[in-house]
Amino acid sequence: MKRQTATSMNQPAKVAIKNETSILAHMRKSGARGLATRLDTQPESRAMAMTTIDGTRGRFDWTKPVLWLFAGGLIALVMLPLTWLAVYSVTDKAGHVTLRNFVTLFSNADFLDPLLTTAIIATASAAICCLVAAPMGWLVSRTDMPGRQFIRALVTASFVTPPFLGAVAWELLAAPNSGLLNQLFRVLTGAEADDHLFNIYSLTGIIFVISCYTFPFVFVLVANALDRMPGELEDASAILGGRTWTTARRITIPLALPALVAGSLIAFLQAMTLFGSPAILALPAGFHTMTTKIWSLFQYPPKLELAAAAAVPLLLVTILLLQAQKFILGRRGYSVVGGKYGAPRRVELKKWRWPALAFCLLVLLNPVFLPYGALLNAALSPNATTLVTPATATLHNIVFVFTELSSTQLALKNTVILGTATATIGTVLALVIAYVSTRRVIAGSRLLGFLATAPVAIPGIVLGVGLFLSYTRPPFVLYGTLWILLIAFLTINLPSAYQQLQAAFATIHPELEEASRILGATRLQSLLRITAPLLRTGVIATWCFIFIGVMRELSAAIVLFTSQTKVISVLIYDLNESGDLAAISVLGIAMLAITFAVVLAVNRIPVFGASAGTRLRN
Amino acid sequence: MASVDLRGLTKRFAALAVVDNVSLRIDHGQLVCLLGPSGCGKTTTLRLIAGFLEPSDGEIHVGDRLVSSKLRTLPPEQRKMSMIFQSYALWPHMTVAENIVYGLRLRKLDRDTIASKLKAILETTKLEILAQRYPGELSGGQQQRVALARALIVEPETLLLDEPLSNLDANLREEMRFEIRRLHDEYRYTTVYVTHDQSEAMTTADLIAVMNGGRIDQLGTPQEIYESPQSEFVARFIGASNVIKATARDQDHIAFAGATLRVTGAKLTPGQTAVVAIRQHDIALALQAPPNPENAVKATVTRQVFLGASRDILVETADGTPLRIVTAPENAVPRGAEVWLTLPPERCRALSR
Fold first, then answer.
1. ipTM score here?
2. How far apart are CA A509 and CA B219, in angstroms?
3. Class of the A99-334+347-369 domain?
């Protein structure tokens, strides 16, 4: 038997046909006889549908009502704070509709200065991040530089370091008088006692520290783009006569450019919405950013309307830039097209290999080596700002923090409770939404997915303001309880949790569940016996990441905590106010240790790749 | 007894009717193929039968049970059906044996019964030595057999197959076609088989329902579908047909390329455009005018390809209609040659649609 494909113009091209003999050979005459089959054209009475369904045995499919309940909860979770935020921003103290708040915001120097400062910080940080992260991303992804995995690991370390902890560490290093680097400078040059090389309490200082913990966002995007870029694209340029640098200039850089631009937008947003670093470094220097200004409006006497109005620009800029980022990364012209490609070929740096590594290590000195060193030093030293020696090393700080410092116990307890509860509820919520949106179980599932990702566009402090406004009034008076923090942490961590689990769901073909159902399993049984085991690693990873996220969250917690609901991040901020840097160092190192343990454990699970691009916030 | 009865079945996604008023009765023990190009609604129809989708209109009856209607749909797990999926949908975290006995475990059968049934089905599907492997360690053909075993072991009333062979290579596909038919004859459940491959449908089906645009275009035995297509779509889709559009002279004659052709099939209306199908290998080709001038047309060869067992020739008639002819390999005619075609009247089928 042979086969031929009809391609002439009066033949549908894709129909594979056989010649007469083979078709006749295949024709089955036996089964063809029983023609009891008929073609109905008239559907019978619809009334039957009401009465004769049997076999349900009284069972009711509970899944849909439950799913609708989740949908309703989600809508309330996301929409309530935003609604109150919008309402407050356009009302005055007496409750009349007004635009006065916005007029004040854009005319009063008290607000214009922070606005300008924030713009400068965000722009400068984004620029520095690009300048540093783009060459590093290229070196790690496309060259034969030694120690590439090590550099990646170090970038991950700076990625998971809470920025407020970094800011405290840099206080230890570069405060004008007590900073370790300034002390070293005075020892080396014999300068006067009040001379200093660095002053971290300055605009440049803030920009520097923010860049230290924001550049990983750019790095991850650029390195991922370059990782995915097939080497053949560069080979094609080379075979057409392009030299190495021509190829880099004409092919590699343009292809990586969208990722770089998108990364810089994320860096800008991160720098703009950060609360911890500016609060620690700008307030002593005597100026405000938008986030610290919003926070100060909550101090006595509170000006909630103005706080709401000041949050609106942050929200709008975030939404705008995230849309821009989506647009840039989504442009079809830049996605790599076509068939199979080999692994990317690495550029040989030859004599530049070691200088390249030195450059990367030099960069990483700032977010990792120096700050971690300073924290360790402060934790073990009797005085946070003197260099520890084997003779002076002490465990006193550690003992003090965990046994004597009264607020630690409460904050640790609260953090563990909130972390566990948020991670558990958040994982379940994200799991259900991811299931509904990937399997389209109920109408409007896409809206549900959108709602779950929407909090990405709500800066932490804006959410804090919105939640404060929503839950200090009846019917939901949650302020002063752990519940309001739970809601805040849930909302903040939902987007990345949802994205991770959705990615995990997408790898599980829906037919795997359908095969189970057609063999007699209910939806719930299928979920438990088929889907759950396949999702296990993804679920565990998501739980851990939410827990870490709760531990490092400061900007929403700072407007929502009360004395009884302090968490570790807030405690660290408080200790900074009271100058207790040694205690911060101990807590910070403990926090980093937990984080690294989890990241290391989870890093062996492939799902981690999906979370690298999502936002870790503080 | 589990006949499957579709009555006015309709499924709309937004405004688009993907399945449009389909009515079809499948008797117990019959194997019906839903055949059509991609996007014709055949898979949607199958998923409606399985209960994964709820109909927008119409009803599905299985035996004397109403299982799907606009108002209520029985969930898939209560339909006593089995299905073989295009992706096989083998659970990667379970061994072959665990995959196969899953349905029996759900039915809470005792250990010994499960073991004996497993042994029997492994034997039938020649999977004994693979029982403890994981699906990821199997070849495509082995995975297909596991899917088959998993679907059959629960002794379903109805078996649904969704393009089950499309992921296999050509040789294996040929073998599995007969295997599926053999198992069907052995167990005699009602089977609905979705495919876009007409030879697959021809090999396995008792009845073929050719679907197009969400409707059943023609229902019949493989032979009926092949020998008397009723529409242009079926004529083109099943087998290799030339379709001629020409003006009808009377009930059974058309004017074509300066000649008059006698045709069979649907009755024509004089003066109207008629659509006539003739298969590529039914056209006789000659270098001289044939002794019997009936249904003979003159044409010019525009392309010819030697295919070993046959020769594929493209000609053009005086009015510019291209016709494709499959003929004996000895008929070597050069490009540009004048030839005479004979279109046997009994092979020229006037189509009603």
1. 0.78
2. 33
3. mainly alpha
